[in-house]
Amino acid sequence: MDGVNLNPEFSVTNEEALRALFEATHDLAIQKHQTALGRHAQEFIRRSPFLCIGTQDRNGKADVSPRGDPRGFVRILDERTLAIPDRPGNNRLDSLVNILANPSVGLMFVIPGFDDTLRVNGHATLTTDPDLLDSMSVNGRTPKIAIVVEVKGVFMHCAKAFRRSRLWDPEHFQDRAEMPSLIKIILDETTGAPLAEEEMRKRDDDLEKDYQATLY
């Protein structure tokens, strides 16, 4: 880590040293790992309107990207296969390019109000199969491509992380206005944001119009 000097005496560099810091995993945590989508995992996916997909390029550089749509947007093709529509975004294509180089992916499914989450690991491919894409159309708009995941591992995560963060507790919601807008953040950290409030407001309005026009 640039600029940070950590004492190497306290570095954990092997699995034996790592596991020595923790108690042994209990049997249920081991048993919960499955290699196919059981009925409860399938129901969880059908209810979920949001997931994060983790990918890596051929050099191991990692990326995590959010995906969201109406609940049930991820198609369950069978107990070992999922299909995720790729909706319009910023066209960086980070996740898709990574999949071409390294098919290993990790998915984290989230349901609003649920403290537990579902994790799916697998191998991904990209497809433009018209029958599959047509079945994923929303508002008359069909995705250009879909991510098909061959399931290799499935398990539920317990509620501790979401309860610690109080993610769904309205009393802990934060006011978005306490931070600059997305456009201002990007401009501040790149070319510089315009000083005139009116110009900045126009750029924010343009982004909102773009959301409405290109959501699908």
From TrEMBL:
- Which superkingdom? Bacteria
Where does the signal sequence lie?
Answer: none
Pyridoxamine 5'-phosphate oxidase N-terminal domain: residues covered = 40-157
Q: Name one Pfam family in it.
A: PNPOx_N
Q: From the Swiss-Prot or TrEMBL record, give the protein name.
A: Pyridoxamine 5'-phosphate oxidase family protein
Species this protein is from: Mesorhizobium retamae
